[in-house]
Amino acid sequence: xxxxxxxxxxxxxxxxxxxxxxxxxxxxxxxxxxxxxxxxxxxxxxxxxxxxxxxxxxxxxxxxxxxxxxxxxxxxxxxxxxxxxxxxxxxxxxxxxxxxxxxxxxxxxxxxxxxxxxxxxxxxxxxxxxxxxxxxxxxxxxxxxxxxxxxxxxxxxxxxxxxxxxxxxxxxxxxxxxxxxxxxxxxxxxxxxxxxxxxxxxxxxxxxxxxxxxxxxxxxxxxxxxxxxxxxxxxxxxxxxxxxxxxxxxxxxxxxxxxxxxxxxxxxxxxxxxxxxxxxxxxxxxxxxxxxxxxxxxxxxxxxxxxxxxxxxxx
Length: 315
What we know:
Elements: H1 2-21, H2 25-35, H3 40-64, H4 70-89, H5 99-121, H6 134-151, H7 155-166, H8 171-197, H9 204-227, H10 230-251, H11 259-298, H12 306-310
């Protein structure tokens, strides 16, 4: 009973983070299942079955709050489902030990770019509002879906930073669209695991409690992502990507860092991340105050201030 309660709390916390930042549900949940001795394929299968419900609830909540671009969902979700099914079906014969550090290095680069760009200049506006092309979204979805099912998580960490880095969508739209399209990925991955493993290798009680926690958190996360300023949200996402992928690299065979080295690196990263978030908050408030004054002077409504000017599609 205690284990089930813990899993429910993990599902709630993981979905709260995932729905707010567009990543980390699968990574968090799978990590716990592996820690208690579940084999990788069964752990990923359990998480993806739970994600069928959590992504459905999350997608509905994001749609309710206007966070979803359905064209992006279709363009990335369908190839994502194909990649997820393939990854789930062949997980037992595939090794991600070499691929994981390479992917983490690429994601770390994207994370640094996002953190610096959002912290220093706010939301990218040079291409904001331009359509995302299928030739970009389809390969991205295929790779992200494959990584997600073989690694027990990865749809958000791969998809979210890539689309954010394009500068063509506001952060809340990126997160809402990624979370919504993940429903297709979760269904396809679950079917692949059921074909490859059989239902007897999946603990459906664990699926149920992870699902319960995630469903409770989904509408809260969708509300949060609509009300967090884009500049602050971008800095938060960038930091999350950096922390997650540095952890993977330090534990990989490439580096295999000692505990002392890892903890020192983590401390430095958390300090830089905290400073970046503090700077983003300060700059957001300064811009909001100055634009509110300008709105009053020109006779425009006071609520059409910094959020609107810094992120036109985020309103």
